[in-house]
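If it is no trouble, might I ask you for a protein's amino acid sequence along with its backbone structure tokens?
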Amino acid sequence: MTITALRQLLDEELPDVPRHPAPRIPHIAARKRKPMQQQSPVPAPRGPQQPPPAGTAAPSVGKLLAWAEAHETRFVARKGEQARALLRELRGLYAEAEELAQADAEEQRLVQQLEAIRARKDRLRPRRKTSAPGYDQAVVRVWAREHGHRVSDRGSIPASVVEAWRAAQAGGAQ
């Protein structure tokens, strides 16, 4: 049975169900067929290009599978069992693909919610000072050491030292 034939069977049985664009169908090795020894109630299959005669409707998938599984020829019955197993597997794969699509959609929704929450937290969080102190720290450190103040090589300069430096600058500028 070809993939096209399986898809046609699915479309006949469940025409309203949307199909996944590329279901994974396992490869089944082709076996040599033995010619049927008896007359079948169904005529021999026509070639894939030849449509059924006008006015005759193809049997539904369920009816076709039931006929195949009840057929007295072991080959036909086995093909019916294989087709039913493949349809069951295809339905499972389709269900998994649908569940994955739903999980992807839920993930997108949650990511958007998380972004909105983070933006709200950023608006509510107090702002830190990020601006420069308004003076050259290296110049203030040199001045402080020359005038007997103790300052570290790194970090913030005590406010009292900065005030003394500013007062000295203001007094020297006048």
Residues 74-124 form the longest helix (51 residues). The radius of gyration is 41 Å. The chain has a mean pLDDT of 80.
